[in-house]
Amino acid sequence: MLDHHRRQIAFRVIHDTDRAFLRQVYAATREWEFTLTVWPEDEKRDFLQRQFEAQDLHYARAFPGAVRRIITLDGTDIGRLYIDRRDEVLHIIELSLLPAWQRRGIGTDILRSLLNEAHGGKVPVRLKVERTSPALRLYQRHGFRQTGSEGHHLSLEWRPDTRPREL
Fold it and tell me: N-acetyltransferase domain location, by residue (predicted)?
């Protein structure tokens, strides 16, 4: 059965009141890492809060001109997208969806839109992903290639000339 309801993906400006939601998205993206740990919930929550704050500070310093938005679907906050557009590259700093909204094609739609933008500007798209992250397969399916590694992260790049045919 075809779904004739066209979902409305949008991006809204982040406000100070959104910090709790952003922490929630961050924690959800790290949840899979804790499947084999026995940390008490309060320790895990405190750790994730400190990690979120450190990441947020790093992003602000490393990408001061980045566009940071909350992803919404039909008006519901479902994730975050941080991108840094430069003349020579489009850098995806963060593309994260809450687990309830994953595996529905939303991340794929957003990624394809960004790849189309980069293709039109004839610039590569770069990002970093944890080597054990489930998102790695999504990026590989869309033609990203590994260009380096640092610690637990892989550096990936997509070039306009490696654009998959189905886009």
Answer: 9-163
Pick the closest to residue 138 from 104, 96, 100, 108 (CA basis). Answer: 108
Q: Evaluate the CA torsion angle 103, 109, 110, 112 in order and state its sign.
A: positive
Q: Give the rounded distance of the alpha carbon of 111 from its chain centre.
A: 9
Q: Where are the domains of the chain?
A: 9-162
Protein fold of 9-162: Aminopeptidase (3.40.630)
Distance CA 140, CA 151 (A): 19
Which candidate, 86, 81, 75, places its Cα nearest to that of 59?
81
Write out the two tokens for 64.
């001061």
The set of residues, in sequence order, having a beta carbon less than 8 Å from that of 66 and lying 6+ positions away, is: 59, 82, 83, 84, 91, 93
E-strand spans in the chain? 9-13, 67-73, 76-85, 90-97, 125-130, 145-150, 153-158
Positive or negative, the CA dihedral 133, 71, 69, 127 is: positive
Q: Say if pTM beats, i.e. exceeds, 0.70.
A: yes
The two structure tokens encoding residue 137: 């397969």
